[in-house]
Amino acid sequence: MDLLESLGFGVALGFSLTVPPGPMNALIAGLSARSRRAGTITGFGAMTSDGILAAVVFALSTAVDLRSLVRPIDAIGAVALAYFGLRTLRRPPTDDEVPRDDVRSFSRAVVVGITNPFQVAWWFTAGLAFARLGGAVLLAGLFGAVAIWVVVFPAAVFAGARRYPAARRAIVLLSGAILLAFAVYFAVLAA
Question: In a 3-state reduction of DSSP, which class is residue 34?
Answer without folding.
Answer: coil
